[in-house]
């Protein structure tokens, strides 16, 4: 479902030299598969997710999602593909404060080319246990409730792939497990593949497939401490 072939990405350093970050010969994720990405700080995990989502361009190679070589699409095509096919959960939940939970979830349906479906937004909030919080704004919700709203929003457009970058980093330990359970269960229910970046061994130990980016990536990252 997701295939990376010979993906290379570098950033330009202030002095003008190029700093290689990614050199991934081959990486695949199957439909509905749940995969954890680990690796030390600065090794390129977020860059990998951004390359897959098309938020950052790669220098060479190919990324194919559901048969579409997204790295060949123009920027507008990448934006449309991202809106229609991918979902995101970030460590800062990125909910809009002026909007209620159900409105925030409906915002996840923007740019899909389809009319917004309030029924689906309410159903998803029900699935994440927030059926009684539909009309609360983020400031009137607990941190765990906000993250669950963000999970519902990420799935609003029926994505085929969910990219989750440290989704439990800002959630207290008591609620971390809830967020992981929720992500796994909702992705399983909706047959959504998930790529989840985490530093937490407690989280990654629960997954069948854990990839260490240093093993997938040929670039040896500079130690950043
Ligand atoms: N826009 C950019 N321009 C230049 N260098 C960048 C840029 N974005 C990231 N980098 C560098 O690329 C490297 C990889 O960054 P990335 O955020 O992908 O790492 P990471 O593995 O997600 O790290 P962490 O676990 O700390 O979040 C880092 O050394 C970072 O400083």
From TrEMBL:
It comes from the Bacteria. CDD domains: ABC_MJ0796_LolCDE_FtsE. Keywords: ATP-binding, Nucleotide-binding, Transport. Residues 2-223 form the ABC transporter domain. One of its GO terms (molecular function) is ATP binding. Belongs to the ABC transporter superfamily. This is Putative ABC transporter ATP-binding protein/MT1014. The lineage of its organism: Bacteria, Pseudomonadati, Planctomycetota, Planctomycetia, Pirellulales.
């Amino acid at each position: 479902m997701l295939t990376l072939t010979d993906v290379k990405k570098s950033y330009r350093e202030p002095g003008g030299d190029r700093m290689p970050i990614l050199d991934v010969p081959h990486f695949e994720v199957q439909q509905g598969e749940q995969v954890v990405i680990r690796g030390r700080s600065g090794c390129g995990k977020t860059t990998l997710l951004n390359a897959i989502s098309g938020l950052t361009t790669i220098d060479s190679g190919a990324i194919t999602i559901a048969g579409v070589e997204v790295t060949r699409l123009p920027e507008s095509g990448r934006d449309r593909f991202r809106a229609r096919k991918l979902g995101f959960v970030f460590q800062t939940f990125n909910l809009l404060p002026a909007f209620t939970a159900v409105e925030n979830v409906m915002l996840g349906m923007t740019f899909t080319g389809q009319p917004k479906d309030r029924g689906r937004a309410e159903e998803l909030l029900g699935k994440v246990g927030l059926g009684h919080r539909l009309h609360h704004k983020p400031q009137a919700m607990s941190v765990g409730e906000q993250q669950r709203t963000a999970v519902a929003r990420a799935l609003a457009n029926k994505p085929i792939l969910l990219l989750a970058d440290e989704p439990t980093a800002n959630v207290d330990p008591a609620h971390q497990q809830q967020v992981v359970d929720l992500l796994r269960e909702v992705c399983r229910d909706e047959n959504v593949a998930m790529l989840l970046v985490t530093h937490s061994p407690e989280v990654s130990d629960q997954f069948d497939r854990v990839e260490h980016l240093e093993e997938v990536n040929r670039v040896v990252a500079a130690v950043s401490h």
